[in-house]
Each structure stands twice: as structure tokens, then as C-alpha cells.
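Run log // design_07
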């Protein structure tokens, strides 16, 4: 008799528990449970952004954050084509502005760092070198990122042109799809030198090497900005992370990786 009653009540009990579970889920979501966050970031940010994300997770236990790295131009196209990124950290301001113009951004770009260009080599001592020296025959392969899609590649072209050696070195250029790949060409010795981001040159993963700063007067400023995308407009974690990226801890990380910082977060 008792077993018959249990069998009759069991479906109602399971349904009740399911409703309770759904209610708890909805309540937790409404209370501000962290949303998953997908970040698109320029390749020059790889090492610094990994540390910023780790610091954010430490401050927000349970935060689900993932970053995809690549050339700013390529990431812009992906976002315009519907890639589900919530925040886009670019290597300059032009690409976030393109998202604003195409209606794929939820606000205006915010400046978070000033990038620096360096010449780096794993095989040649560059401590006393200057950019015009890259015209010498010992630099048979010079790695840069593609100027069409990578801001650091565009600035490398500008600097080589300003040094008066662009036409001379152009046949020896090896192009990376982004600044990370250009750095790999130099790190592995497939290029004797690479014009890369200082933020990459300073990371221990590059191993032994030497570099010099390319004079900033030789290229347009690398004003690195981010923007919350249209996809991330309703994601509270996108806003939280954006605020964190402009905060003291994140700025300290960026500074350690050689970035210049805006006078104040904007």
C-alpha cells in the first residue's frame, strides 16, 4: 500500500524538485552570479593579459574568462561576422572604432595602454644597434607582422620607412600573421631580427636575446584601446572586467610588460 502511494507521488515530487532547482538557478543568476566572458585580444597582449585574467579570477572566484589572441584586424572582422566575443582589446584605437562605425560595439573605445616597438634578436647583439643597421647583410631575414591587419606590423613599416631602408629590406621581410608569430620567427632564429612588441620581448618565454627600443618618433603612437562589443552589452562580467582592466592592479601588470600608461584611466 505504502509503495503504491510512493509511486503515485514520485512524479509530483520530481517535478517539484525540478521547479525548485530552476528557481534557485534563476535566483542565483538574478543575484549576479558571474557570467562567462569571452575576450578577443591583440597578440601583443598575450602574456600581460594572461596575468590580468589570473588577477581578475583571484578577485572574482569562479569567474569563467577566456581570451583568444590574434591580429587586431582579423579579430575585428571576426566580431563583425558574429564571433561571440564580449570585449575586444586591440593594439590600437582604429579597429575598435571600426566596430563602433559598423554597429558592433556597445560604447566608445577606452584607452588602456601605449604600445612600444622594439627590434629583438636571439642571435645578434643589438644593444648598440640602431634601426638603419638592419640594412646590413647580416640581417638576411627580418620578421614583422602583416601591416594590413596588425598594428605593430604597420608601425614596423612606418619605422623602416622613416629610417630610409624600407625599399632595401623589403625583399628580406618575413611576415607573421600577427605580432606573436613574428616574434616566434625571431625567437627560433628563422629571422635574424624581429620588429616586435616590447611586451613580448620582456616575457621570459622568449629566452635569451637582446633588443633596442625603436624611437617612438619613427612611428604613429600605438594607442591601445578596448571596447565592449554589441554581443557583450548585456554581460555584467564584461563591464566588471573592463573596469578591472583600467584599475591599479592591471595597470601595474601592463607597466611591467613595458607598456606606457594613460595619465588616467579613460
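design_07 sequence
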Amino acid at each position: 500500500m505504502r509503495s503504491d502511494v510512493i509511486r503515485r507521488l514520485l512524479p509530483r515530487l520530481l517535478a517539484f524538485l525540478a521547479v525548485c532547482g530552476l528557481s534557485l538557478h534563476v535566483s542565483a543568476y538574478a543575484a549576479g552570479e558571474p557570467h562567462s566572458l569571452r575576450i578577443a585580444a591583440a597578440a601583443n597582449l598575450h602574456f600581460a593579459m594572461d596575468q590580468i585574467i589570473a588577477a581578475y579570477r583571484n578577485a572574482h572566484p569562479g569567474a569563467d574568462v577566456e581570451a583568444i589572441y590574434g591580429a587586431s584586424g582579423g579579430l575585428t572582422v571576426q566580431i563583425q561576422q558574429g564571433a561571440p566575443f564580449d570585449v575586444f582589446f586591440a593594439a590600437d584605437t582604429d579597429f575598435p572604432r571600426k566596430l563602433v562605425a559598423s554597429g558592433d560595439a556597445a560604447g566608445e573605445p577606452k584607452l588602456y595602454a601605449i604600445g612600444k616597438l622594439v627590434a629583438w634578436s636571439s642571435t645578434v647583439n643589438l644593444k648598440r644597434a640602431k634601426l638603419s643597421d638592419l640594412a646590413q647583410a647580416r640581417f638576411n631575414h627580418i620578421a614583422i607582422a602583416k601591416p594590413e591587419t596588425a598594428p605593430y606590423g604597420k608601425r614596423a613599416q612606418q619605422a623602416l620607412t622613416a629610417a630610409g631602408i624600407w625599399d632595401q629590406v623589403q625583399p628580406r621581410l618575413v611576415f607573421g600573421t600577427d605580432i606573436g608569430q613574428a616574434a616566434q620567427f625571431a625567437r627560433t632564429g628563422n629571422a635574424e631580427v624581429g620588429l616586435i612588441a616590447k611586451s613580448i620581448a620582456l616575457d621570459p618565454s622568449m629566452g635569451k636575446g637582446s633588443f633596442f627600443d625603436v624611437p617612438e618618433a619613427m612611428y604613429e603612437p600605438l594607442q591601445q584601446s578596448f571596447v565592449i562589443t554589441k554581443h557583450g552589452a548585456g554581460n555584467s562580467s564584461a563591464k566588471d572586467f573592463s573596469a578591472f582592466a583600467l584599475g591599479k592592479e592591471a595597470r601595474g601588470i601592463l607597466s611591467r610588460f613595458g607598456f606606457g600608461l594613460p595619465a588616467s584611466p579613460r
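The domain at 36-114+221-256 is CATH 3.40.190.10 (D-Maltodextrin-Binding Protein; domain 2).
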